Amino acid sequence: MLDDLITSKTRIKVLHLFLGNLGEMYHVREIVRRVDEEINAVRRELLLLDKKGILIREARANRVYYSLDTTYPFYNDLIKIHAKESGLGQDIIKNRVKLGKIKYAMLSGDFAKNSPDTGDSVDLLVVGIVILPELSQIIKKEELVKKREINYTVMKEDEFNFRKSRRDPFISSIIHGSRVMLIGDEESLIKE
Has residue 56 got a pLDDT over 70? Predict the structure, then answer.
């Protein structure tokens, strides 16, 4: 999706590096190694992203470090885009037909931001008629990458609607919490 909007391959790689590692600060040479692009191209993109307010530039001794600016007006939107086009989000969107008839699929905001796992929250909710072996395979692959268990819940649409109408605390926490919609209409999800 980013490559539909941004023509610079280097800029996309730099953005994905920072969005995939929220809170991290990188030296220019480390960025060059991680994105595997020419140093001049990386420097040009870093200066542009700094000028636009997406990155923060910080000089320390004789080195320059960059990090994401959490006050950037579209910070959360960039996180959502990144969550949809990488890892678990990308795999679910790409394999939606194999997974069955999904009405809604969403990641928790904490999962999208790579926040530490508290163990009591759901990372992924899938509503519809789901082929569980296919979903399990995708989740296991992502668990290996993230090196942690992914908490997920699957339910049929009628159960979801019933629990939503009863103001079930679990469903309410999902509806009123931070989330990234992968499949489905967010407005119909939250509609009473």
Answer: yes
Structure tokens, 145: 């990458």
Give residue-wise pLDDT tens across range 121-162. Answer: 789 999 999 999 999 999 999 999 888 899 999 999 999 999
Mean pLDDT, residues 1-21 taken together: 83
> Which of 176, 53, 180, 12 has the alpha carbon at shortest distance from 107?
180
Of 179, 182, 181, 114, give the one whose Cα is nearest residue 145: 114
Please name which of 114, 136, 116 lies closest in space to residue 126, comparing C-alpha atoms: 136
Instruction: Please tell me the distance from the alpha carbon of residue 96 to that of residue 5, in angstroms, as a whole number.
Output: 23
**With contact defined as beta carbons under 8 Å apart, do 127 and 148 qualify?**
no
Q: Report the distance separating Cα 154 and Cα 132, nearest Å.
A: 9
Q: Report the chain's C-alpha Rg in angstroms.
A: 19
Tell how far CA 154 is from the center of its chain.
19
Q: Report angle CA 73, 55, 86 to the nearest 5 degrees.
A: 80
Distance CA 83, CA 115 (A): 13
Residue 181 three-state SS: strand
pLDDT for res 95: 95
The answer to whether 26 and 67 are in contact (CB under 8 A) is yes
